[in-house]
Specification:
Blueprint: H1 2-24, E1 26-32, H2 38-46, H3 48-51, E2 54-60, H4 64-72, E3 78-82, H5 83-93, E4 97-102, E5 110-113, E6 126-130, H6 138-147, E7 156-160, H7 164-173, E8 184-187, H8 191-197, E9 203-207, E10 218-223, H9 236-252, H10 257-268, H11 272-282, H12 299-311, H13 324-327, H14 339-345
Parallel strand pairs: 1-2, 1-3, 6-7, 6-8
Antiparallel strand pairs: 3-10, 4-10, 5-8, 5-9
Helix pairs in contact: 2-9, 2-10, 9-14, 10-11
Pfam families: NMT1
Protein name: SsuA/THI5-like domain-containing protein
Organism: Antrodiella citrinella
């Protein structure tokens, strides 16, 4: 009886200790269109979030309207989504969103076809799924298809559906939820590699990086009112970005490849082989998540986004003479405001190169 009682006591003590540690973590709500990016997977699985005292909840975003409205209302601490969305809402509608860093340059950003579609020409006379016909990846989709001689409204139409996860599932069946046929959509990391590995595989008919590069894809976005860290340089937002910075550095270091692959596999519930392909996409020097150091923004990549939006008439509410080059200069209160990122650089906690906390898990 004494032995059983002692075992129970120490087991209870262990449970209470774990509970106390979890309770001590600050909640952090992470909104994402792209699901688990490689940087997020590393931050979550390797312990960068916990090391910053954060209990992170990842909330997938079903569509742009919901995502950015929720961010403005304080429902997310940070949001990862296309910079085109932010450019559109900031310049056309003066909505107060701020980009604190660049997550990636469009890893595995592709145009994928439904069953039976093997080339861009197969889209003629059909519908393609988008999150929003006026924002996100719709403009670059128009750009690539126009280079193939297809024009929106004449040769194909847009079907407004929602986020990438929803479009991916519908694409596999070739129909929308109501049974309407669909021919294709834009896919991103991590769905592209899943599409290639599907049985039967989903056809990849074009890669955006073959037509425009660099292309600033996903941005770390916050409410503009949260962009000044001076009153609380150790806020949950600053620590959240610090965790992502640490994860980004870990992902960038080639000696950590095996551990990063393991983290991607665990966080996404996929095989090691598929995770290795995801890792390759995330570390691609042209379009990956590690193309820029410490979430620095590619000015040319951002100008390419603006240029493509301009070509499809995506700045109807911007006044004549608006200086886009000046508008993307970083500074307090502007579209690009790096004060949170800079404060986070002081808090980064790195894992020793080559060490993997997942080795014995």
């Amino acid at each position: 009886m004494f032995i059983i009682g002692t075992s129970f006591y120490f087991a209870l003590l262990s449970v209470l200790n774990v509970a106390a540690q979890v309770q001590a973590l600050d909640p952090f709500i992470f909104g994402s269109f792209v699901g688990n990016s490689a940087t997020y997977s590393v931050a979550s699985e390797i312990g960068f979030f916990v090391n910053q005292g954060l209990n992170v909840t990842l909330l997938p975003i079903p569509n742009s309207t919901f995502g950015y409205d929720t961010l403005l209302d304080g429902g997310f601490d940070i949001l990862v989504g296309t910079v085109d969305n932010v450019v559109n809402m900031r310049f056309n509608s003066q909505k107060q969103f701020t980009v604190v860093g660049q997550l990636d340059l469009g890893p595995d950003l592709v145009i994928a076809g439904a069953p039976g579609v093997t080339s861009v020409s197969d889209f003629r006379g059909k519908g393609l799924m988008v999150d929003s016909p006026t924002s996100g990846y719709a403009a670059v989709l128009q750009k690539v298809l126009s280079l193939h001689g297809l024009q929106l409204g004449t040769d194909y139409t847009f079907q407004q559906v929602g986020g990438t996860a929803t479009r991916f599932e519908l694409l596999r069946n070739g129909t929308l939820a109501d049974g309407t046929p669909t021919a294709g959509t834009i896919l991103t990391f991590p769905f592209t590699e899943e599409a290639i590995a599907a049985s039967p595989p989903i056809s990849i008919v074009a890669r955006v990086s073959d037509f425009v590069a660099p292309f600033f894809s996903n941005a770390l976005t916050i409410r503009s009112e949260s962009a000044d860290p001076s009153s609380d340089p150790n806020s949950t937002l600053v620590r959240g970005v610090a965790a992502l910075l640490g994860a980004s550095r870990f992902l960038t270091n080639l000696s950590n490849k095996e551990c990063a692959v393991r983290a991607i596999a665990r966080d996404n519930g996929i095989s090691t082989a598929l995770a290795e392909n995801e890792y390759a996409a995330a570390t691609n020097p042209v379009s990956g998540e590690t193309s820029q150091v410490d979430f620095a923004v590619s000015q040319l990549g951002l100008l390419n986004v603006i240029d493509i939006r301009m070509l499809v008439g995506g700045f109807a509410q911007v006044p004549p003479g608006f200086d886009f080059v000046d508008a993307i200069e970083p500074g307090p209160g502007l579209l690009l405001d790096f004060r949170i990122r800079d404060a986070a650089l002081n808090l980064v906690k790195e894992v020793k190169s080559g060490e993997c906390p997942l080795t014995h898990q």
